[in-house]
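debug: dumping io for the single-chain case to check the tokenizer round-trip. Nothing else runs in this session.
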Amino acid sequence: MPNKHNDDRRHHIPKMSFKVQNWPEYEAGLRRRGSLTLWIEDAALDQWQSVGPNGQARYRDSAIETSLMLRSAFKMALRQTEGLMASVLTLMNLTITAPDHTTVSRRAVGLTVTKSPSAPKGPLHVLIDSTGLQVFGAGQWLEEKHGAKSRRSWRKLHLAVDVDAGMIVAQILTDQHTDDPSQVGPLLDQVDEQIDKVTADGAYDGAPTYQTIAQYGDDIAVVIPPRKTAVPGTQSRSPSQRNRHLDMINTEGRLAWQEATGYGQRALVETTMGRYKSIIGPRLRARRFEAQKTEAAVGVAVSNRMLAAGRPNSVRSQKVPA
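debug: decoded output
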């Protein structure tokens, strides 16, 4: 039976209230997200296709990427995406054609997705985390429909997010068995700008993570909460960052450490992952792993472009409702 005392306590827990200060600009940005001009750019149309010796169209990567972005943004199947592209090109009185769904599906494997032109400039404070994306197949359908047992499969989407702009500056899709710390280096390899600070949760704690980050700059500040069972490492020179974190937690407490290091900003990467799943979806549609990597990269590009179109400036209200 439910515990009335616990229910009363949950009922009286105050909730933080936030107010959007730039609502007119943000509302305009939300409307712009539905505009086709946001996704079909003149630069892409200029490099859309060429004609082969036999008169057959040869589509450039920009045509395939545009089709995949439309599919991801409007959550359509490839056949419906082909129809939308064809109708838009006709309305624009263009002589170019839309790539068919089979071409888009085939070319998605190994496609290099271009980075956002509005990528943030350094030095950057980078947040790193990962989230799971579902992969549905016949096994999952049989389990849900008939109760048959199957091996669930899912992928890990590793993200690096810039604190100030909120944009995803690096992404990697791996299988479910890949550990998070092993992807810190590959993520930072994708960041072109100078890195000033890296923040991650306790799953990344350990000397190897600090050593990896140090390869990208000796002066990079690292904020990772040591595990409760962590012990100071041995060092011959000045105390390491990790040891300094441990000393402060032991002397002043974990909450004081979080406030002093700004660890609370890590919640922004969780907000980013929630936004990705809200806009793009929590599962991957492609069946092949290489195509899934492209799908995730396109999803990140779509999420960044939507954020650039309009971002809310939310501040915590002074009055907290009871």
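debug: round-trip ok. The longest helix spans residues 289-309.
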